[in-house]
Amino acid sequence: MAKRGALLETAAEVCCPSVFAAPLDDASALELASGFAALADPARLRAISILAAAEGGEVCVCDLVEPLGKAQPTVSHHLKVLGDAGLVVGEVGHATGREFYAQLAEEGLPEAAVLASLGCGNPTAVADLHSGGTVLDLGSGGGIDVLLSAKRVGPTGKVYGLDITEEMLALAIKNRDEAAAVNVEFLKGYIEDIPLPANTVDVVISNCVINLSTDKSRVFAEMHRVLRPGGRIGISDVVADNELTASQRAERGTYVGCVSGSLSFEEYEAGLRAVGFDDFSITSTSEYLPGIHSAIIKATKPSSTSQDQNS
């Protein structure tokens, strides 16, 4: 028996080595659990791997859209979850917008709408919305700007949100229902081909989406088409200094992907003017890279009276 006991003891030493773990207090355990929960999604794991491989560890949300195969607002949401868990830090060029939307979350908007938001400014603050108006948000994502607009136009108004991504539309509809916003409708479609009749909208807003289009002239023409005479746009977008060449923007685009396709101030105004807009203002709200700005763009579709005078 003594021999058998010795053999069992030896086997236990070979097959069952001791396991050691440092003791965790409640705060440390909570922090680790948050990190593991944040990583429980393939897209977030892939985002972490891309960030780790990037020079300096910095990648704009726009640079993650194609490799992750997700819409820009969805990528932003994943980064927000990772950021809350302390696994990533910030989103280049969007700090101002995040702070604004964080404040709105405290005022009662659905949290999911806030987390899914992404932008380079605050179009609803400058769009001059009125009770009873009809508003269209291009690239509405999780619906935060739509819900904000719905509050301002009131129950007699109407707000449309347009997005092409099924998952973001589903999230936006969920957020609409949670907010009990009965004057909101979400549409599936491209911003280059807006699924609304002509002359049906008072205001078009958009938050850092038009710069991503490969056919901006078509977007401008579609905005002009759906607006009623006298209607207006109030959009946030990425705009480049006039002096920057296309190659210089592309160089900056390797750092912030939203930049490479951006228009200059002059190009933006020329594009809007070409489709019939007037009364322009393009105002920089911040310069987050040399020569690259977050900007508010406003313009008006002439009323029939104005058009008669110009003809």
Polypeptide structure, described:
The chain is α/β, with parallel strands linked by helices. The protein has a domain of 194 residues: Vaccinia Virus protein VP39 (Rossmann fold). It contains 13 helices and eight strands. Strands 1, 2, 3, 4, 5, 6, 7 and 8 form an eight-stranded mixed β-sheet that branches. Strand 2, helix 9 and strand 3 form a beta-alpha-beta unit. Helix 4 crosses helix 5. The longest helix has 14 residues. It is globular. The N and C termini lie far apart (111 Å). The N terminus and C terminus are likely disordered.
What is the correct CATH architecture of the domain at 117-310? 3-Layer(aba) Sandwich
| Cα radius of gyration in angstroms | 25 Å
**What is the chain-wise order of helices and strands?**
HHHHHHHEHEHEEHEHEHEEH
The CATH superfamily of the domain at 117-310 appears as Vaccinia Virus protein VP39
| Annotation field: number of helices | 13
User: What is the averaged pLDDT score?
Assistant: 75
Proportion in helices: 40-55%
Uncertain stretches: 1-21, 91-107, 113-119, 305-311
CATH topology of the domain at 117-310: Rossmann fold
Global structural class: alpha/beta
Q: How can the largest sheet be summarized? A: 8 strands, mixed
The CA-CA distance between the termini, in Å, is 111 Å
Total beta strands? 8
- The level 1 CATH classification of the domain at 117-310 is Alpha Beta
Beta content:
15-25%
Shape: globular
